[in-house]
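PROTEIN DESIGN WORKSHEET
SECTION A - STRUCTURE
LENGTH: 307
TOKENS:
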């Protein structure tokens, strides 16, 4: 339960966002200081941000013991299967699949075979939109960029750099100025109206801060699922949010010892539904189940390739 606490200190009123929780049979309370003598508007904004810091979800309880064990087994099993391939073979296979799926989710008409030929054979598919060809090459470059990063923390600049690579030379003329920067326009995605552009820098900074503070505190799958759902809800860019967000999932998981993952195109609509449930109900389970399903399907793919 999250609520605002007010405390008087002389003539001043101090505001805190508090969260009550039970630990070892006792009710305890965690607080975040919001400010002094706040207006209703200031309080509303600060409460919204502080919820991230305080934790809107009990992240430690999202995965039960059986699920924790299952993810550990998936991680070890898939790593073993991937390890049976030479690095170049796995790289080509995974990058082709990941690029195909992530771009196809956003509407690319390239097939998996088109994508492999374009990226690794020097063969340009015929009768395909130039935009799709550019985006495929961009995605591979962005994945390589993410893999080459040495840092563990995220920053706004790093995320903007990833988006810039994802969308370069592929934006319509009216959006070219939005390459590599947080959006300066308001956007709506299907029925979801993203927050106004003016609040995007602040909200993204709060989310990044949450990740950097908690990336090793909670399970990597939970951290990646929460960050991804919040990132896609915020929709910080005019274009390239989905592809950038899925690249960030791999940034997070691979740095915690997990294999890279692709969200397969065939799960697109379940993936959309899962993001909606995370956004509206703070329910991460559907999105985590998508990640688990995709990892298990990758196990089957690399078992078959091994034979």
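SECTION B - SEQUENCE
RESIDUE ASSIGNMENT:
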């Amino acid at each position: 339960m999250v609520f605002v606490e007010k405390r008087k200190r002389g003539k001043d009123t101090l505001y805190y966002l508090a969260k009550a929780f039970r630990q070892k049979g006792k009710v305890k309370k965690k607080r975040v200081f919001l400010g002094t003598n706040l207006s209703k508007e200031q309080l509303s904004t600060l409460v919204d941000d502080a919820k991230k810091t305080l934790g809107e979800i009990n992240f430690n309880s999202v995965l039960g013991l059986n699920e924790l064990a299952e993810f550990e087994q998936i991680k070890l099993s898939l790593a073993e299967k991937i390890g049976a391939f030479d690095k170049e073979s796995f790289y080509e296979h995974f990058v082709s699949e990941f690029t195909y799926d992530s771009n196809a989710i956003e509407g690319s008409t390239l097939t998996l075979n088109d994508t492999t030929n374009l990226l690794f054979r020097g063969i340009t598919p015929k009768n395909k939109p130039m935009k799709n060809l550019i985006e495929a090459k961009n995605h591979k470059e962005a994945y390589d960029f993410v893999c080459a990063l040495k840092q563990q923390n995220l920053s706004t600049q790093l995320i903007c750099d990833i988006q810039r690579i994802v969308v370069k030379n592929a934006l319509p003329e009216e959006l070219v100025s939005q390459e590599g920067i947080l959006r300066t326009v308001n956007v709506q995605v299907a029925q979801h109206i993203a927050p106004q552009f003016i609040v995007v820098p602040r909200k993204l900074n709060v989310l990044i801060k949450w990740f950097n503070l908690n990336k090793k505190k909670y399970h990597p799958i939970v951290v990646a699922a929460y960050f991804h759902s919040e990132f896609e809800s915020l929709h910080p860019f005019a274009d390239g949010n989905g592809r950038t967000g899925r690249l960030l999932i791999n940034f997070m998981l691979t740095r915690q010892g997990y294999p890279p993952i692709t969200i397969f195109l065939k799960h697109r609509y379940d993936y959309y539904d899962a993001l909606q449930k995370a956004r509206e109900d703070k329910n991460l389970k559907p999105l985590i189940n998508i990640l688990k399903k995709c990892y298990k399907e990758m196990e089957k793919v690399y078992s078959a390739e091994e034979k």
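SECTION C - NOTES
The chain has a mean pLDDT of 92.
The first strand starts at residue 2 and ends at 9.
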